[in-house]
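Q: I have 151 residues here and want to know how they pack in 3D. Can you give me a structure?
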Amino acid sequence: MTDARKLRLSLESTLDSVEAAELIVQRMAELNGFDPDQVHQIGMGVRETMANAVIHGNGLSPDKSVRFDASIDEQAFRVRVADEGSGFDPDSVADPLDKGGLLLPSGRGLLMMRAFFDEVEIGSSVDSGTRVRLVKYRTKGAGGTTQEEDQ
């Protein structure tokens, strides 16, 4: 592959948007040579990121949207998600592995994003809300990953 594949969307704050984003990135990953495990990881990580943006960030508000960017090049799959909520401090989120947190109905999204992507960056959006940047590197050979800088 010689050129990047890019997608930029403005999605409604609905659960349908969460599912659509997951399906879109899975198809992009399949078409661009990611293996089935990576396709699943990318889809699940994006699903969790979008669910957080739609539910926790935007509160399912029909007046708010989620900015969604995805791109693939020879090194990696990169995703950016930005909501219009009030933002949050990711360090204040309880570790779901502590004290039975895995059994709670929510709270595992950050854990899953970090497990499925090689890089996860969470910060404030320029206007308001939360911005999440995810990077999944292509595997190289039998066990390593490339770690080129995100451009």
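Q: Anything worth noting?
A: The CA atoms of residues 18 and 29 lie 17 Å apart. The chain has three helices and seven strands.
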